[in-house]
Design a protein that fits this description.
Layout lengths: L4 E5 L3 H13 L3 E5 L2 H11 L3 E5 L7 H9 L6 E5 L4 H10 L3 E4 L4 H15 L4 E3 L2 E4 L4 E4 L2 E2 L4 H11 L6 E2 H9 L9 H15 L6 E4 L3 E4 L2
Parallel strand pairs: 1-2, 1-3, 3-4, 4-5
Antiparallel strand pairs: 6-7, 7-8, 8-9, 10-12, 11-12
Helix pairs in contact: 2-3, 6-8
């Protein structure tokens, strides 16, 4: 049995059940979300290895889901769509989808595409100087030493390292990491940033994390 987990975001329960059966028979652990919002929450909290994403979701378009995920998540995304046009394919890839399948598709083709994306994922990492982040293993190292982070600290660092030098406001970090569920006036972001800065300093990572007074936070690019 594989330890690789796949999240299906699909509102059609019949299609979701078929996908769950095909992927389960192939040895994958499978979870399901029937709305875009539930899919985003599961992706954030459960850290799947791959997402199969339907475009026609009831709450908002699957393309919006791709955009939101790509702001702080490197998980492979295969879009399932009936929109078989060149413009639509270009749009999806431009938003950050890794692949797409046109409905209806054969289970063997789906499994082949899934295997390709999971194989590619095992070698992916994000680096900035001597700071390296592996989204798949959820492992961070600095100068070869492991940086032990809480899940939220890891997610914040993953957000910042994608665009070194870009300043993220507290609001933006709250929206991306907590899905905007922080109460007004909360200092939760500041507390996590202080903890992250302290852990970087413990490994001599002085100055890696910048505070721009009155604006927000950034990794020094």
């Amino acid at each position: 049995m594989s330890d690789q987990r796949i999240l299906i975001v699909e509102d059609d329960l019949d299609i979701a059940n078929v996908l769950r059966m095909d992927l389960g028979d192939a040895g994958y652990a499978v979870d399901h979300a029937d709305t875009a919002m539930n899919g985003l929450i599961k992706a954030r909290e459960d850290h799947p290895d791959l997402i199969l994403l339907d475009l026609g979701l009831p709450d908002f378009d699957g393309g919006d889901v791709v955009q939101r995920l790509r702001k702080n998540n490197a998980v492979p995304i295969i879009v399932l769509t009936a929109r078989d046009t060149v413009d639509e394919k270009v749009r999806l890839l431009g938003l950050g989808a890794d692949d797409y399948l046109i409905k209806p598709f054969h289970p063997d083709e789906l499994l082949a595409r899934v295997k390709v994306q999971l194989r590619q994922r095992t070698s992916e990492s994000l680096s900035m100087g001597e700071l390296t982040l592996d989204p798949h293993k959820r492992l961070v190292t600095y100068k070869g030493a492991e940086l032990r982070l809480s899940p939220k600290e890891f997610d914040i660092l993953a957000l910042l390292i994608r665009q070194p030098g870009r300043v993220y406001s507290r609001n933006e970090i709250g929206q991306e990491i907590w899905q905007g569920r922080l109460p007004d006036g909360s200092n939760v972001v500041d507390v996590h940033m202080a903890n992250l800065r302290a852990k970087l300093r413990d490994l001599d990572g002085y100055g890696l994390l910048r505070t721009v007074r009155g604006v927000g936070y950034a990794l020094r690019g």
